[in-house]
Amino acid sequence: MLDSLVDLRRNKAETLERLLASYEPNIRLFYPPAGSVHWRFNLFINNRDNLLKLLLAKNFKVSSWFPSADLFFEDRTLSGINTAVSDSVGDQILNLWVNEEVDIDYIKAISSEIIAYTTHAAH
């Protein structure tokens, strides 16, 4: 059954990619290495938190990453640590479900919501 689950995830991820790719730079897609299996489909959105709250309020299955791990251990003003790339990812990444909990109709619906939000936010 593992092969069919991997194929389903890949199909959903490819559908998301096809639906969202033409909306760059408002939506920036993450392209994993060839042959990778999606745990979640990742994309980057400016003002991600507003979109995240909107999607969660509409009961979509989405999540974001936690901030950089160094923030849990000490004050950056004391450590001098600078993790600009990690911080940027933490502020902008949005994770979309592509597992067996969702179907292609769901993928189309969440894509439409993201496109509408980013199109409106860009103007």
Largest sheet: 4 strands, antiparallel
Low-confidence stretches: none
| Coarse morphology | globular
Tally of DSSP helical segments: 5
Strand ordering within the main sheet: 1-2-4-3
Evaluate the radius of gyration. 16 Å
What is the end-to-end distance? 45 Å
> What would the average pLDDT be, to the nearest integer?
87
Structure, explained:
49% of the residues lie in helices and 13% in strands. The protein is built from five helices and four strands. The protein has helices at 2-20, 48-57, 76-79, 84-92, 104-121; strands at 27-29, 40-45, 62-63, 93-97. The chain has a four-stranded antiparallel sheet. Helix 1 runs parallel beside helix 5 (104-121). The mean pLDDT is 87.
In brief, what are we looking at here?
With 123 residues, the protein is α+β, with helices and mostly antiparallel strands. The chain is built from five helices and four strands, in the order αββαβααβα.
Supply the key terms:
4-stranded antiparallel β-sheet; alpha+beta; 123 residues; 5 helices
Can you lay out the helices and strands and say which pair or pack?
Elements: H1 2-20, E1 27-29, E2 40-45, H2 48-57, E3 62-63, H3 76-79, H4 84-92, E4 93-97, H5 104-121
Antiparallel strand pairs: 1-2, 2-4, 3-4
